[in-house]
Amino acid sequence: MVVKRLVLPDVLKGVAVLLMIQVHLTELFATELFYSSLPGKISLFLGAVPAAPLFMAVMGFFFALFPRSTRYYIKRGAGLIAAGFLLNLGINLRFFAKIISGDLQLSPLPYIFGVDILFLAGLSLVFLALIAPLAGKRPHIFLFIALAVSSMPFVLPVYDGNNVILTYLLAYLHSHEWWSYFPLFPWLAYPLTGAAAGLLYQSGPAEFADSVKKSWVLWASVSVFLVLSWYGFGVSIRLEAYYHHSALFYGWAIAFMVLIALLFEKLVSFGGSESAIIRYFAWTGKNVTSFYVFQWLIIGNLATSLYKSVETYKLIFWFAAIVLISSVLVWLWNKKHHWRRIFENH
Fold first, then answer.
1. pLDDT digits 0-9 by tens, 209-258
2. Angle ∠(258,260,261) on CA atoms, nearest 5
């Protein structure tokens, strides 16, 4: 079945990466006064489920909707993992310089091996590629594994030994270390759920959309979101709890994402896929990896000087500036590859 690239998933990815930028600013640039205030907590909330979980779910959706070979996904996953290490080095260049010069007495290892979202994306693609032949076109298998994965943090023991190699290796799977931001358990649950949605959509796009809007799925999502909203908000604004959340939060997050997807579907339909703002969100979503890398390189290196010191009213300026600069860099990056392809074909 040949499926055209869809606008809505790209829009959702674009929104997710922009929300990541604002939450990175709150975490690294904003003063403690703003961070602990209600606007700061709203920023953390918007940088939670509508950001990383939504991005990972859309990645799983595309995995199922546009299937490729196992070899391709393993190679792609390995590339993302390698990019994760390079990004960790890139965003901390000024920080490492201070460690080398003796200005900071800290170990660089957590900053080199910190488990950011690129590692999660790479490991998730490898896992999906390996189980896809076994699961086939059965979405319930992906959902069952997703539920099991989201429950794993309460089943698996946390390594607390003195072996440094094991400490850092296991941080990519399951850990309570502060630098293990996106361990595979429970975060793998989101691309698995996205893959299930992709399989359901593949069987009939119109029927899938109608079933979500008219069936129990929508009403169940509304109910779960409302009943657990206070709990979900509380987890979202506490970073340690968010990064190492439970199956209960996963269930709330999926319900929330269903509502987010329906909201943006209405906005896309109302504004039209050719409107400037929708086209920008979609363009950002299509280039989400390079956009994510550029914004982190900027924020990470600036944070060495601006850490927890930017006043509230200046955060808006920094957000606009970083979005603009990242957009220009992504555009130039794409142009570079465009011209290189032209020259290679002549």
1. 666 655 667 778 888 888 899 999 999 999 999 999 999 999 999 999 99
2. 65
Per-residue pLDDT of 57-106, as tens digits, reads 999 999 999 899 999 999 999 999 999 999 999 999 999 999 999 998 89
Cβ distance 192 to 149 under 8 Å? yes
Global confidence as pTM:
0.92
Can you give the length of the chain in residues? Answer: 346
Closest C-alpha among 42, 40, 50 to residue 16: 50
Residue 182, classed as helix, strand or coil, is coil
CA distance 183 to 199: 25
| Cβ proximity of 177 and 110 under 8 Å | yes
Maximum CA extent, the chain: 62
- Reduce the DSSP state of residue 235 to 3 states and report it: helix
Angle between helices 216-227 and 229-236 (to 10 degrees): 60
CA dist 298 and 320 (Å) reads: 13
- Report the candidate in 76, 180, 175, 172 with the shortest Cα–Cα distance to residue 128: 76
CA distances from 155 to 149, 163, 172, 190, 254 (A): 10, 22, 16, 19, 21
Please provide the DSSP assignment of 257-270 as one string: HHHHHHHHHHHHHH
Q: How far apart are CA 77 and CA 72, in angstroms?
A: 8
Q: What whole-number distance in Å separates Cα of residue 175 and Cα of residue 180?
A: 6
Q: Which two tokens stand for residue 62?
A: 């595309």
Cis status, amide bond into 153, omega within 30 of 0: no
Q: CB neighbours (10 Å) of residue 96?
A: 16
276 by Cβ neighbours in 10 Å (0-12 / 13-18 / 19+) ranks as exposed
Q: Give me the residues paired with residue 30 across strands.
A: 310
Closest CA relative to residue 95, chosen from 288, 301, 344, 332: 301
